[in-house]
What we know:
The mean pLDDT is 90. The chain is an alpha/beta fold. A seven-stranded mixed β-sheet has the order 2-3-1-4-5-6-7. Strand 11 and strand 12 form a beta hairpin. It is 30% helix and 19% strand. The longest helix is centred in the C-terminal third of the chain and has 18 residues. The chain has twelve helices and 13 strands. The protein starts with a strand and ends with a helix. The chain binds iron/sulfur cluster (2 copies). One iron/sulfur cluster binds next to helix 7.
Amino acid sequence: MTGSIEVVYRGIFQKTLGQRITRGIVLAAVKEGRVGISFGRYGDSPERNGIPAKSFAVVADNEEDLQTYLSRYEPTDNDVTVAVDDTLCKGVESWAWYGLQPINKLTRSGGVVLTTSMQSPEELLEDCHRKDTEWSLAVLKGIASFSGLWVYKDDHTDVRVLGAIARLAPHVVKLESVEAAIRDEWNDELKVTSARKAYERVEARKVRPDEGNPERPYEFQLPKWWEMKEGLVIPGIPVQQDVEGWEGGYRPGRNPTFKKFATRTMRPVVDFEICTKCTLCWLQCPDSCFDVTPTGHYDANMEACCGCGVCEAVCPVENCITMVNESAFGDNASQFEMYEKDKDTYKSWLKGKIEDKATTDRTHGFQLRGKYEEEVQEIIREVTK
Ligand code: SF4
Ligand code: SF4
């Protein structure tokens, strides 16, 4: 029997984690006398900060079955899809694809999406797109494990995910073989314990086709062959984009087919009432994502924002820009337009989002020395209790 697992992770921040999980699956399968292969496929080069990327593990009873399964571009019917950052449940997008891919798109009918999250399955289902067959959503309690740039700080997320997979898809790997592989690979009995606890604690719930986010994922029209120009033509992007009702404002031209909805783990919220219009956020944003409004405010455009947090860092006005966990948002609408429409509603929206930061604060773990160690306390409490 062939089994396949995909791990969806955030480029750079979680690359090592993704690789360790898929490698661990193959090592465990080998303990059962089976064969397997683990390989990565990234969506952007070289796995830029936060860009969704994938690592796969395929295991089979023999070489022939494995080769047969692998004679295609990538596994399209995975037993388990692992999202090691729960904000990826909103969908996966990389420039090489054609819009937004639902997190469960390549999960086979009856398969499982497993995510590490502090949210409940019901909350996560608001993000996961509907699928026309039944599937399961499993949650392994824990924050998204950001190891920081190229430095892997071990928080046991890799072995916890392996233990959870053994529970959710025992036909792919069994707990005993996961434990044996961990002993061989890491020689660490605490890691074995973490895997076993995850096996015991992971919770899954069935999802019916009428449950989940009903929105149609964003896509764009590919040109037909007769619409293509002769030779290699790369059309330039216009310098400015017109915005209806924004006379006097300015929106830079942007690539209409590459939106960054799926690259963020955090997003900025802006308090327009205390903004002094100093322009620093606009100048420093590495992705030129601020639109200049007719009133001279700067509106972070959520089609362009990758969530790096530079604007928050450079804004000289205290609490004017606050980076908030992406999981707190249900759409990508303009904050400035909400502010203009109804200032009171905006103020209470803003207050709610800033309060959310206090409970679901997240960073990429490298903003200040020791930050990541602080963040993983929740995982450590969960693993050791
Ligand atoms: S977080 Fe701020 S600086 Fe970074 S891309 Fe978004 S708007 Fe620009
Ligand atoms: S940096 Fe802060 S104060 Fe300056 S324009 Fe941007 S939001 Fe306003």
